[in-house]
């Protein structure tokens, strides 16, 4: 079986500083893979390498049968990598409807619509289509950011800390949505997260990072192991 997404011994530098050292991550089709670690260990840098925002200095990234090399972010989006950035980065002055429609950019004209299942996952978006994005709560903005990524029809959905600053009820909604996307849509999901209970509940596989390196790989149940938890304690 072809892996959906494979990160193969990549390095990444910011100037002279090395942020990632030999990172390898395999995302199996139709699974949720979580990357965990304390602040500043390289989790977001890994996602920025996958989405093409930052260029790697060694190794390679494969998406299906394609080696991504130095493909820019918009090409990766058109190939099927959907990205929900940390901090959501919605357009505050655009309406919810307009924010969702920004996902049309890489789509054929016949596909330029918002799939109905997005509104079934996040009903609040349908009720607020005319409201400006900046007027939504943090949790509603996160749902909008996920919905916008889903409009692009991704094969792999990449999320950077989707529970950060979100109230518990919406965290549960997001968890249910990601499980639905995996179980009913067969979507491959990669997320960076610090909320251990969230990952324990929804993830299939975990990668634990520390100081720019992968320290542990295994099933989500490994989060209870002392040798894993030592890399996650603040």
Overview of this structure, please?
This protein is α/β, with parallel strands linked by helices and 234 residues long. The longest helix has 16 residues, at 168-183. It has helices at 43-51, 73-79, 96-101, 116-121, 123-127, 138-151, 168-183, 196-202, 226-229; strands at residues 5-14, 17-27, 32-36, 58-63, 66-67, 81-84, 156-160, 188-193, 205-210, 213-219. It is globular, with a radius of gyration of 17 Å. It is built from 9 helices and 10 strands.
CATH-derived architecture: 3-Layer(aba) Sandwich
How many strand elements?
Answer: 10
Structural class comes to: alpha/beta
Overall mean pLDDT: 94
| Major sheet strand order | 6-7-8-3-9-10
Unreliable stretches: none
| Continuous helix count | 9
The CATH homologous superfamily corresponds to P-loop containing nucleotide triphosphate hydrolases
End-to-end distance, in Å?
38 Å
Described by strand count, sense and barrel closure, the largest sheet is: 6 strands, mixed
Residue share in β-strands: 25-35%
Shape: globular
What is the CATH class?
A: Alpha Beta
CATH topology: Rossmann fold
Number of domains: 1
Radius of gyration equals: 17 Å
H/E series, N to C?
A: EEEHEEHEHHHHEHEHEEH
Helix content: 25-40%
């Amino acid at each position: 079986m072809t892996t959906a997404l494979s990160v193969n011994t990549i390095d990444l530098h910011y100037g002279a500083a090395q942020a990632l050292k030999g990172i390898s991550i395999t995302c199996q089709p139709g699974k949720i893979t979580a990357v965990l670690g304390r602040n500043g260990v390289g989790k977001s840098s890994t996602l920025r390498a996958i989405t093409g925002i930052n260029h790697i200095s060694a190794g390679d990234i494969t998406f299906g049968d394609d080696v991504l090399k130095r493909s820019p972010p918009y090409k990766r989006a058109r190939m099927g990598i959907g990205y929900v950035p940390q901090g959501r980065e919605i357009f505050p002055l655009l309406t919810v409807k307009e924010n969702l429609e920004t996902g049309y950019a890489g789509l054929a004209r016949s596909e330029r619509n918002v799939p109905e299942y997005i509104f079934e996952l996040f009903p609040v978006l349908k009720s607020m289509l005319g409201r400006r994005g900046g007027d939504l709560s943090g949790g509603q903005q996160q749902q909008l950011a996920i919905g916008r990524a889903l409009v692009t029809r991704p094969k792999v959905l990449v999320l950077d800390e989707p529970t950060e600053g979100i109230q518990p009820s919406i965290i549960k909604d997001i968890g249910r949505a990601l499980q639905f996307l995996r179980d009913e849509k067969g979507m491959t999901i990669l997320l960076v997260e610090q909320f251990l209970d969230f990952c324990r509940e929804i993830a299939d596989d975990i990668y634990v990072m520390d100081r720019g390196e992968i320290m542990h790989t295994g099933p989500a149940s490994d989060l209870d192991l002392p040798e894993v938890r030592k890399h996650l304690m603040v």
